[in-house]
Write a structure and sequence with these properties.
Layout: E1 5-6, E2 12-14, E3 28-29, E4 35-36, H1 38-47, H2 52-59, E5 60-63, E6 66-69, E7 71-74, E8 77-80, E9 83-84, E10 89-90, H3 98-101, H4 113-119, E11 123-125
Antiparallel strand pairs: 1-2, 2-11, 3-8, 4-6, 5-6, 7-8, 9-10
């Protein structure tokens, strides 16, 4: 646990080495929204060698005033379309949205650490 990540005001730390064994729980499970900004859309499209409009048509849907990455249903669960089960990783890791980059340090989890521990095996009390 040498590379623990900590963030001020959060009552837990994160051990990123746990990602190797968790089977992408933060990318799979219950259906949800994976919001992307215009800049993130452009970055992901560039990484995939696509035009932003083509990327949006294929991989996004509009939710209110925002855009979210589509999900796929797999064995009764939902997963981000960019989650790769073979590698247990993200197919757009270098351009992944801020929402993904900041997990597990979301404001929501500050007071829901036990809930977070059920989703993420890398959570450690501090």
């Amino acid at each position: 646990m040498q590379n623990l990540m900590k963030k001020e005001t959060y009552p837990y730390a994160f051990d990123p080495s746990a990602c190797a064994s968790c089977e992408g729980r933060c990318c799979t499970g219950e259906s949800g929204y994976i919001y992307v900004s215009k800049n993130e859309i452009e970055n992901i499209a560039e990484l995939l060698g696509m035009q932003a409009n083509d990327f949006a048509k294929e991989y996004l849907y509009k939710k209110g005033y925002k855009y979210s990455i589509k999900e796929m249903k797999f064995n009764g669960s939902y997963e981000c379309v960019f989650y790769n089960r073979e590698t247990n990783g993200c197919g757009i890791y270098d351009a992944r949205p801020t929402q993904c980059r900041t997990f597990p340090f979301w404001e929501y989890y500050k007071t829901r650490v036990e809930e977070l521990k059920l989703e993420c095996p890398g959570i450690i009390d501090v």
